[in-house]
């Protein structure tokens, strides 16, 4: 791909169309908040607009965008203004009236995602473990590619993936067991006025 002195509209439109969703998914995975994730996406593409990197391929462009987004999310999490209510609490509260008045279909879809058990399990993972899981399973990056994106050793990636998988497996197993127990309890519970589960009394 060429490296124009000033990024053309065609180049930027292609980058956003081809890779915008990937950048948004990564930002949402890291920041756990729709508004913050969208801000991170916007900043990522602003940096692309003003950056002079020459991209050899579309995959090179995607990797660059992901790496920039990772750094932006990391900086965001360290900044004082990012210390706000967790995205899960925000989604349960439904946001303020101004936010609801401008909510998009994309916002609704992203917030629906927060009800998924995997989302809750991921939220409990540290940032570094959550990131390698996202890159491996959502972005389909191999160990070497993840190591290059994050600037760490491949062995470190493998260790983080192992720890992340174990914690996710344990969390999802516990969640599934809890839900099954609750369903079973509800099934056998006798409500007031219901017939006795042992049949009519013997006269």
UniProtKB/TrEMBL annotation:
CDD domains: Sigma70_r4. Residues 16-81 form the RNA polymerase sigma-70 region domain. Residues 182-203 are annotated as: Disordered. Transmembrane segments: none annotated. Residues 118-168 form the RNA polymerase sigma factor 70 region 4 type domain. GO terms for biological process: DNA-templated transcription initiation. GO terms for molecular function: DNA binding; sigma factor activity. Gene3D superfamilies: 1.10.1740.10, Winged helix-like DNA-binding domain superfamily/Winged helix DNA-binding domain. Keywords: Sigma factor, Transcription, Transcription regulation. The keyword Flavoprotein does not apply. Belongs to the sigma-70 factor family. ECF subfamily. This is Sigma-70 family RNA polymerase sigma factor. The lineage of its organism: Bacteria, Bacillati, Actinomycetota, Coriobacteriia, Coriobacteriales.
């Amino acid at each position: 791909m060429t490296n124009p002195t000033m990024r053309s509209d065609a180049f930027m439109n292609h980058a956003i169309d081809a890779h915008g969703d990937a950048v948004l998914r990564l930002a949402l995975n890291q920041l756990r908040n729709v508004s913050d994730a969208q801000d991170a996406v916007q900043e990522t593409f602003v940096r692309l607009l003003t950056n002079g990197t020459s991209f050899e391929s579309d995959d090179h462009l995607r990797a660059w965008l992901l790496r920039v987004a990772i750094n932006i999310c990391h900086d965001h999490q360290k900044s004082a203004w990012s210390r706000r209510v967790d995205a899960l609490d925000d989604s349960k509260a439904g946001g303020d009236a101004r936010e609801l008045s401008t909510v998009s279909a994309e916002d609704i879809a992203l917030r629906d995602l927060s009800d998924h058990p995997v989302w809750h399990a991921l939220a409990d993972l540290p940032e570094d473990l959550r990131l390698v899981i996202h890159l491996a399973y959502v972005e389909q990056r191999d160990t070497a590619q993840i190591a290059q994106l994050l600037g760490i050793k491949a062995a470190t990636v493998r260790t983080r993936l192992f720890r992340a998988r174990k914690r996710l497996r344990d969390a999802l197993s516990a969640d599934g067991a809890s839900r099954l127990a609750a369903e079973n309890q509800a099934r056998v519970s006798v409500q007031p006025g219901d017939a006795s589960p042992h049949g009519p009394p013997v006269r």
